[in-house]
Design goal:
Length: 539
């Protein structure tokens, strides 16, 4: 039984262990971006980056298809999480007859493929094992530990903690240990269910596109303006380097991810997503004013006004972290059909991967497959205004967004057969201690999350449903047992149909679990026949 009223600490702890291989992947990818990871030139690093990104584009949709056709994903998650560490250890223990260039290529492919596959599998697995009210906090812990470990991995070479002359060996062993520890908990034994909420993921995706477009335009217009201002300063490399936040920028990134995920649990996905659009709008509108004020009111040596640029960097990193926590691991697998969530998630992440690849290519002025990427000079003059416009459009589109928190329902293998296994999973999610009318929840699921009133229930079951669904009509219930069942709070077969045998046996004195199962089976038959009969009469 999944935990609905208490935080699933054991499940969350195992899921959080997978943060180590993700941190290893990000550490390697950032090293490829900066050209400091391997003994190669910057173009060679970027070539490996492009090949790895290409591998991820292939792995993403394949993983999504596999996820939708398999019930258990834990073994695949463990295997994919081992790929990055395996790519590193193959360099340390050359068991393959491969050259150094080939081992570098294997490393890039393993890292990107492992990250793509494990990210999809982890997100789906979290969606199966943690209910919506606690999933955001689980994601917050996961993202926070990813960033903490990334900071640790970055600090190790600076502290001189390197094994065998390779900066990747210690992070690889940490990643390997975390995955093996997760496997020791046997996550395939944990309870799970397919969750879903009525609505379309596209309603979130469209405003997200405008947010990403606004972010890219604002970032490159800002970077160009600041670069022009510091053009005569040979010591200036980037704004983070100038403000001394190259390492410290991880902190607001982590805080943003944690705030968004926790907010998604408390306020709901829609409210948290609306806050993201609002903050992005503020950044595009007032962000330009921050650095423009710095240019006009001070020179580069005046430390008092440097706080403006520091606040600009911190605000941008916080918003990026907020976006990361909310939009990568939440929302997309929660809305829409439960049967296609893997493919849906992989395709949306395919888009995100394309955005990140384009962002990196333009930021680095890279040449990929003969194509030169750079920020068009024509956008420097009005790109900021378009960034504001796209943010406002995103804000305008948030009205019809579907809620998730409080509407998410288990919807795997549901039918009017009232499957005992499914009923056992769903009862606690929808009923309180004294309310056992969980048949309403079964019908609520069938009707895509709409509320069913007493009059609606009477219409579905028929106006004479109380007479048709009397307890005495259920085979196995006599006069004495009927009194006991009524004393326990049940009035009709409709109420019994959504109960579990174990709970019924606990509530009714002298009723065994086996007897309760037989009664519930007959109650569901009566309810099903009543619904079908009324449907035929209506037609």
């Amino acid at each position: 039984m999944l935990q609905y009223r208490e935080f699933p600490l054991r499940t969350a702890a195992v899921l959080v262990l997978f943060s180590a291989p993700v941190s290893l992947c990000i550490y390697i990818i950032t090293g490829l971006v900066s050209g400091t990871l391997l003994g190669l030139s910057l173009p060679e690093h970027h070539g490996l980056l492009g090949i790895g990104a290409l591998a991820a584009t292939v792995v993403l949709p394949i993983t999504g298809l596999i996820v939708d056709r398999m019930r258990f994903h834990d073994h695949l998650l463990l295997l994919s999480s081992l790929l990055p560490a395996t790519g590193v250890l193959l360099r340390l223990f050359p068991v393959l007859p491969a050259s150094e260039d080939q081992l570098n290529l294997i490393l890039a492919v393993f890292v990107f493929s492992g990250l793509a596959a494990s990210a999809v599998l982890w997100t789906i697995r979290a969606n199966q094992s943690v209910v919506a009210r606690y999933r955001g906090r689980t994601v917050a812990l996961f993202v926070a530990l990813v960033l903490v470990l990334l900071g640790v991995f970055t600090s190790l070479p600076q502290l001189g903690v390197v094994l065998n002359g390779d900066i990747l060996v210690i992070p690889a062993f940490i990643s390997l240990f975390a995955v093996l520890l997760a496997a020791a908990f046997r996550p395939w034994k944990f309870s799970r269910a397919s969750f879903g909420a009525a609505g379309s993921a596209g309603l979130y995706f469209v405003p997200m596109v405008f947010v990403l477009a606004a972010h890219m335009l604002w970032y490159f217009v800002t970077k160009t303006s600041i670069g022009d201002f510091f053009a005569g300063d040979s010591a200036f490399e980037s704004l983070t380097q100038f403000t001394g936040l190259e390492f410290g920028q991880l902190m607001p990134l982590a805080i943003g991810a944690i705030v968004s995920a926790v907010s998604a649990d408390i306020r709901g996905r829609k409210a948290s997503f609306s806050t993201l659009l609002f903050m992005m709008g503020l950044l595009t509108i007032f962000g330009s004013a921050v650095y423009q004020t710095y240019f006009e009111l001070t020179d580069v040596t005046h430390t008092t006004w440097t706080v403006l640029l520091v606040s600009l960097v911190l605000s941008e990193r916080f918003i990026e972290g907020y976006m990361l926590g909310l939009c990568l691991f939440l929302i997309w697998p929660e809305i829409g059909s439960a049967r296609s969530k893997g493919l849906r998630l992989s395709l949306i992440w395919f888009f995100f991967l394309g955005y990140m690849t384009l962002f990196w290519a333009v930021d680095l002025n890279a040449t990929v497959f003969g194509l030169d990427f750079h920020f068009p000079s024509v956008l420097r003059s009005f790109g900021g205004e378009f960034a504001i416009l796209f943010s406002l459009i995103g804000l305008y589109l948030i009205g019809p967004l579907p809620e998730v928190l409080g509407r998410e329902i288990e919807m795997e293998d549901l039918s009017l057969e009232f499957d005992e296994r499914q009923v056992r999973k769903t009862v606690d999610a929808f009923v309180g201690a004294d309310d056992f009318e969980s048949i309403r929840s079964q019908l609520d699921i069938i009707d895509a999350g709409q509320e069913i009133s007493d009059s609606d229930m009477s219409e579905i079951l028929g106006e004479d449903s109380k007479d048709k669904l009397q307890l005495r009509r259920i085979p196995g219930i006599g006069e004495a047992l009927e009194k006991k069942i009524r004393a326990a709070g049940y009035e009709s077969a409709a109420q019994l149909a959504g109960e579990t045998a174990q709970r019924l046996a606990q509530k009714v004195d002298g009723l065994s679990t086996a007897k309760a199962e037989a009664i519930l089976k007959e109650a569901r038959k009566i309810v099903k026949k009543t619904i079908k009969k009324n449907k035929r009469g209506a037609s």
